[in-house]
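Practice set, problem 2.
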Amino acid sequence: MSVMAALNSAPLYLICGGIIGFVAIICVVFIVRAYKAGLAMGMDRVILKRVVTSSATFSVLPAVGILLGVIALSGSLGIPWPWLRLSVIGALHYETQVAQAAAEHVGIGGLNPEAMTLSAFSTIALLMSLCIMWGMLLSVLFNKGYLKKIGIKSPSENETKLNKKSGFGDLAMSAMFIGLVSAYIGSYIGTFVSSNGLFTFTGDWLPLAVVFVSGLVMALFVYLSEKKKKLWVDNFSVAASMLIGMSSAVVLSLI
């Protein structure tokens, strides 16, 4: 049996599908309990149904970005594992970057399906799991104390305290994400070489073009959200930027 056949085997589908099914059941239980709690509070059934419908509608397009991540990773990691990671707790930008970094460090030269081995997959899967589980563990251990520390009084006071407490965290996450993106972009910019004072490009220019197009699309969404107050576009910005960026790669490669 080949490596990719093993990564797409029935036992892996059964294990990953069982976990995803369990999480889906929990989600349905919470939806039902939340709906009943809304009725117990005296909320109108029409309003509750409208909230459910609008939430489901606005979840479709952002989920396209997650589906793209599953498709992108399935070529080298099989379908069950990316499906599990991005269905339960994983984040699109996290899973792809950690998987790529782990693949490079195990010596297979990135997420290359032809070079993938079972031992390399085990290492990649282990790192993808270990590096993201700390948020859950820290929440279990320290979240109760954190809530007591910030206190819950009036909504305005609580919002002010949360903003003060989360300021550094937001900046740190933004800085980390910018650093990761810069590292990937820099790897392609680094293919410019200087000879006799002239710069020549020896690498593939397509990734840089896709970054440029995707950045323009995201900038447009940010403009519509922040300047035009069309906050609903935030739900579609990442997925739409990815789709348009990937479409531009297809068009530019034909050109």
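Problem 2, part (b): a different protein.
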Amino acid sequence: MKLTMGVNDLTEETLRYYRQLGVTHLKVNAGDYMDENRRGPVQSDKLNAAIEQAKRFDLKIEVALLPQEKGSQHWNIRLGGPGRDQEIEDVCQSLDLLGKAGVPVVEYVFNLQAVYGVTWQGNHWGRGGAEVIHFDYDRVRDEGAPTPEEEASAEQMWDRIEYFLKRVVPAAEAAEVRLACHPNDPPVPCLRGEDRVLGSLEGMKRLVELVPSEANGLNFCQGTVAEMGVDVLEAIRYFGSRDKINHVHFRNVRGAVPIYDEVFIDEGKVDMIAAMRAYKEVGYKRTIMPDHTPQVLGDTPDGKRGFAYALGYMRAAMQALGVEAE
């Protein structure tokens, strides 16, 4: 497997730090290489500069995340509104450029309600007073008023997903790039008028079967799957044995919808050693990274100390289980 870290900057300090911790691959935000509004196709000069910067520290950009925020590159695609065909063309051009540059995985989301701000509460404390992300569905299900365009039924969301995949998957195949869809997080049935169709195993299965292709797969966010209250190990085996896991977020939670906390990697309800073993058993060899670490004492705003703890745990688990690291 490829021990990976998602980074928001490519400064020498950040890259040297994570390389020292054993990271070999990076996930970056593709919107950083688009125009100033995080729209349009990826710009090759910006992308190539980032790739070369990573190479200076013996790191490889392996995953690019399409921008998630409202108004960014594939927002109208998710709305099903005017402009989506141009955005699909922008996505397809981005896939082509990323593939030619040697970035093999492109992650994306397909939801309208953002996971930040309204849905997660801070000021909740975990082990030793570390700040953790807390979710309580009853507190947020009707919080805030969505605009009418952000309300969508399950049927509407599936129509939009199918419209997107039927056009983008062939472009991914041609570019030799694999798509990695992040399931809806939090995985609740409905949030502020949006039916969350990718918030269940059934929805994840439907997505990968909608347009059959090795390019149509998942970012298997293990924390989100745990939040669904299902058997995580069986889910790894189901999707992994079908070669539908194209990227992994390796994190742990305590609880499940409607109430849960995102805790340290070693104290949640999922046996993370068993999970790592399951990835090995299904032959998973792609990127695996920590995500949403608690904020520990004296941490940096981007969680470098918390992520160091998670990365150390992951390296130890991989070595103990004989997982081959690239």
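Answer key, part (b): The first strand starts at residue 2 and ends at 6. The mean pLDDT is 94.
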